[in-house]
Amino acid sequence: VRPGRDIIVRHCGRVLVEGDRMAYERLWAETSFRMQALRDEPQSAAESYALLADPADPGLHAHVPFDVDAPLAPALVSGTPRVAILREQGVNGQREMAAGFMAAGFEAVDVTMSDLLAGREDLASFAGFAACGGFSFGDVLGAGGGWAKSILFHETLRAQFAAFFERPDTFALGVCNGCQMMAHLRPLIPGAHAWPSFMRNRSEQFESRTVLVEIPDNPSVLLAGMAGARLPVPVAHGEGRVVLTPGARVDLERDRLVAARYVDHYGRPTEVYPRNPNGSTGGITGLTTPDGRFTILMPHPERAVRAVANSWHPPDWGEHGPWFEIFRNARRFVG
Q1: Is 176 annotated in the active site?
Q2: CA-CA distance, 326 to 231, in Å (whole number)?
Q3: pLDDT for 287-317, tens place per residue?
Q4: Residue 141: what pLDDT?
């Protein structure tokens, strides 16, 4: 008997069913696979089904090469810098984002675009902002496109955001829809000219699942000290596919601007579905700027700040999971 590989069903001491678990799993999944191949993108369906034939698949895991519980310097704890939790019509996840920053010692302020338009808030009074996920304006102008255009085509807002990005003491995080929006703002963001747009998932479906992401060596101030980490993280998007020419990818890799990439359960960068849920070139799912102050991520680290919020995590994780380090790094950056 191969532990974990065989299924044996007995009744009154008689074996009714005995066989390889993976063979039964493939048999069970075959109907769904054939329907998926007709309904969705056939290659993605085939890749997902083929993964069921890997008997050595180690499954989700986590490699955390930093101390999640390292205390912040006492000097940092005494101050309370302000961070704008930025959102627009159709955006969600702002509460989780605010909770992460508050736990790291920030005053998190809910800031809508109408607040900025009306002058009730001004980015000049904030050390950083986080653009949240969701579906701004229903993504009818492309994911994050309408949100970005409300800035790019409004003289006052464009100047306010440009001034914020030019300040040397600011940071910004864009997650999911906020990532897509900030990619459209690359003309305003110093060092972001090579950022790509995010296209419809290769699977032709909205993807909501837990995947494995690796943090490569990069200059992001929010990912400082996290290089080499492989971490489970939720994704939830319909347009997260990075499409790059070979030359553009080489440039991003050379300049260390890739901030996160999808990896398979063996820790290898992958374009195979669903380990890579959207088909992004080279598994790229996060980018930063040369000075590291501005970082965009398609996955949702704010949904995984507390260990208990993860659909799976190693049993030795404490109150906070390793994605909390992003928020702690933001606190370290502002001093």
Answers
A1: yes
A2: 13
A3: 999 999 999 999 999 999 999 999 999 999 9
A4: 84
Beta strands in the chain (DSSP E): 6-11, 14-20, 82-87, 107-112, 128-131, 171-175, 198-199, 207-214, 230-237, 241-242, 258-262, 284-288, 294-297
For the segment 118-142, the average pLDDT, to the nearest whole number, is 95
Can you tell me the distance from the alpha carbon of 37 to that of 196, in angstroms, rounded to the nearest whole number? 29
Interatomic CA distance for residues 210 and 132, integer angstroms: 18
Q: Catalytic: which of 47, 88, 132, 176?
A: 176
Catalytic residue among 184, 237, 300, 320: 300
Catalytic residue among 96, 121, 214, 302: 302
Query: How far is the C-alpha of 295 from the C-alpha of 215, rounded, in Å?
Result: 12
Contact call for residues 234 and 311 (beta carbons, < 8 A): yes
CA separation (Å) from 208 to 205, 236, 277? 9, 4, 9
Residues contacting 227, CB < 8 A, separation 6+:
65, 215, 216, 217, 218
Q: Please check whether residue 26 is in contact with residue 53, taking contact to mean a CB–CB distance below 8 angstroms.
A: yes
DSSP 68-82: TTPPPPHHHHH---E
Distance CA 119, CA 34 (A): 55
pLDDT at 1: 44
**% residues pLDDT > 90 (the chain):** 89
Q: Would residue 300 show up in a list of annotated catalytic residues for this protein?
A: yes
**193 counts as catalytic:** no
Mention every residue, 6+ apart, whose C-beta is less than 8 A from residue 316.
Answer: none
